[in-house]
Amino acid sequence: MNVSENIIIALRSVRSNLLRAILTILIIAFGIMALVGILTAIDAAIFSLQDNFIRMGANSFEISPADEGASGNRNGKKSKRGEVITFKQAMKFKEKYNFPALVSVNVFGTSLATAKYKDEKTNPNVRFRGIDENYMAVKGYEIDYGRNFSTNEVSSGSHKAIIGMDIVNMIFDKKPEKALGETISVGNIKYKVIGVLKSKGATLNSNEDRIIFAPLLNVKRYYGTRRRNYNVSVAAFKPEDLEASEAVAIGTFRQVRNLKIGQENDFEIFKSDSFISILKENTVKFRFAAIAIGLITLLGAAIGLMNIMLVSVTERTKEIGIRKAVGATRNNVLIQFLTEAVVICQLGGLIGIFFGILIGLLVAKLMGGSFFIPWAWITLGISVCMIVGLISGLYPALKASRLDPIESLRYE
Length: 412
Fold this sequence. Notes:
about 400 residues; 2 domains; about 55% helix
């Protein structure tokens, strides 16, 4: 018999024992769904974050105090935290940095601000940040209505503001054109709205649209303290110049920090893809957990499938005897029962893969990212089903192939 005939016989056997086969197929499907679904969900989250960082500019990086941001595995050793970047140091770097690139200095104000317009106000969870004229270009923000801050507005610390789309929706009745020229209150300070940001959506727990920008000197005036850190961001004009711009930035910032030759850097260069690398590193454990969950479920399915195949061999003993009597070899019988086990596993696998992809699609939608087909995990699911089918069906198939044809014909 060829492969197609073996598959037809396997499907006929599944149909003749439908309830029993369906239960086994569902167990396999749940195992594969857990495996493919969780792995796809993790990838969807990573790709969503990656898309957001790419929008921020693949040719950009930030300078931060050593060990200030997220860090990966440091072999159990924690590096010494560097001193904060002061306003004077940040502005000196911006002045001295000599490379074809944009430099932005910005400072975090608060994440608990409340924006108010007349009788309307937001919840106290608005992020408030002071920026310069280059921040929008470096970070990939776009102005949907109005304009950016001028150099004069930044240096004078004027009471102007650029607001995110969430602020518009909450206090300007979802009409961005209505917001331009109006005066809002952030805390007790009044600001004139000169721009509305294009919507960027949310990334994990961070809403990129629930934000208000004010000129750098203005936020420094109200939120600046001795320990306040000022962020320095750099975006090279050409992506291929990124490494060179990093090297120049390190040299320039060492001068700004007055570091001597041989002295270690007390600051770090943090690229947008560094966070993705750290995230991938930290999600390895989640991937192993997902695989373990899937394999444990599949182990139960494999035991159930082996039991069904042994029962099938017993029920079809006479059929096996007839096949051998008309010329079927031990190898033919072995392949027939192995094919049947693999077919049952693959049916369960296809159902599991389908629902696993749906889970990935749901996660991608919730994350605001684009959906992709996880070919790697689909291949893994099919391969695992093939292996489970072969392992589960091997002993029953060997038992069937070794049956004596005469004894089998006499079996009732």
